Amino acid sequence: MAFVTIRDIAQEAGVSVTAVSQILHDKGRFSEQTRELVRQTAERLGYVPDQRARAMRSASTQTVGLLVPDLRNQYFADMVSSMEEELYRRGFTTLIGSYGERVDRQDAFLRSLLGQRIDGAIVVPQGGLSQGLQLLIERKLPLVFVDRLVPGADNVPFVVSDPRPGLEEALDQLAKLGHRVIGFVAHSALGSFSVNERAKAFSAAIRERIPSGTGVVVDCNSTVESRSSALERLHNAGVTAIICAYSPDAITMLGLLQERGIAIGDAVSLVSFDDIAAFRLMIPQVSVISQQADEMGRLGVEMLIRRIASGTEAAAHTHYVPTILHMRGSCGIAVA
Amino acid sequence: MAFVTIRDIAQEAGVSVTAVSQILHDKGRFSEQTRELVRQTAERLGYVPDQRARAMRSASTQTVGLLVPDLRNQYFADMVSSMEEELYRRGFTTLIGSYGERVDRQDAFLRSLLGQRIDGAIVVPQGGLSQGLQLLIERKLPLVFVDRLVPGADNVPFVVSDPRPGLEEALDQLAKLGHRVIGFVAHSALGSFSVNERAKAFSAAIRERIPSGTGVVVDCNSTVESRSSALERLHNAGVTAIICAYSPDAITMLGLLQERGIAIGDAVSLVSFDDIAAFRLMIPQVSVISQQADEMGRLGVEMLIRRIASGTEAAAHTHYVPTILHMRGSCGIAVA
Questions:
Q1: pLDDT band (50, 70, 90) for residue B49
Q2: Which residues of B touch A78 (CB under 8 A)?
Q3: Total of domains in chain B
């Protein structure tokens, strides 16, 4: 007998399976003698209630779902690892999912999470208020959004990064190095709130920080062709420095620049969002506007646990974590 | 009424909750009239059975657990993404966990997975036959090991990488470039079967492939101090080329070499296991012995699905995926 079931207890105690089930759930009408017999038999046989069965009765499963767009993106891998670490420290098991930036897969995972009756979820959402997100909100599952905000989901607390402090500092530093025509690589096809916020913040900040400067905004998607074409357009516009809103774009563009023999930090300066490990390992090292992924992960977990404890009726808290600039070798004096 | 429960159906149909539950499960003794009334009421109210409740009755939840040591390690992030992609294509939801190379966390996640009654699991295991792994095997959960093998778990099919083809090719190429004293960085503290196999394969292959050569094997752990000390010992032994068994060690060592002004691909040649994106982005690009993570992920999923279909009593299949060498700029002619 590998595992004791209520069937084993019923057989041993000479009562029906239904009686065992009801007694162990403190339900039904049975004599105290029968109740005692069943409880003692369960204890003697070493019966352990199935975790899921227990979860259906009690509010807490000590399990939290975590959904991110893409684990191949080091930024999300770092954030997930920091959240999982923090959750484990607090006694929670983490079920991670990733959806490859596709809303249908995001919603499929969210529906599956609801079936598992987890205690709560931390989601880096894609796009708007999708069916899956609406379902979670309707079911009043404790929920926190991290990294990206969903317009219209006013009752969900969120931790997002404020792109402005790091971006303004980057423009100040580039201006000091003599850069006047500065390119910005957007990625609107991603449908990411925070990536789009960076583009808005750039357009506002360039006028403020470099009054004599020009901002050239181009857009790309996740194909090499699109990134190559965006780079071409920036080159033709005469930019001497480039800021990428989305780190996978920067990684491909660095490769494209190297391939074409364009010296990074010399012929062109480059700053990317996301402080991922690879950027510190390259030569020259890549300047970044860091969102402090670890800090955001820790804050997200703290907010979720507060939400689980206080219920979803409590007011939604929001946190803006300021970005920080790390200047490195990929930025140099502007070449005329 | 956000979600219809069996309680709602009972109220609406004027029968007991137990009756509704039994009728919807095709159990109990009721008149065909009562059965029909309950079924029609359930349908009319739009009752959707709870996924977990359904999972307790039926064998399949279309959910698979995936456990890897570390998502910050790009190699595992790539493998997990390829497995998740393949599982989604086949209609499965994936619950991912990572355990930071710690056996206690691995076992905590495995216990939690059992509570969720998933259809099966793919695990990159740490160390030996831990309690958590034994529990999974005892419960006859369809299980596949990927990347690492667990001695003693003979009934579990596995996909592991064969380190020899890529390693032998690397030694042949280094010999052609004039290297005779070749260092190997092991990482025994990891307790990883496959990383340890690489060290064994190196010691065997160096005698075979470079009869006049010397192999210098050093060991390190995951601290910068230990990696720095390992590099020192290799330098003192006069090696001109280094092969790292574990890519995070290589990444730190590349940084250490750059910091000390030692030209990679010139003063020292370096080859690492794991074909991670960062290695292709560095200058010079880093030569790698690739385990073909995508291919291993796809094979693992295929084997698990076969296992789920055929039951765990079927014979365990094993797959060795050959490693492949990708020679890049980090290897150059040996400097005397």
A1: low
A2: 72
A3: 3
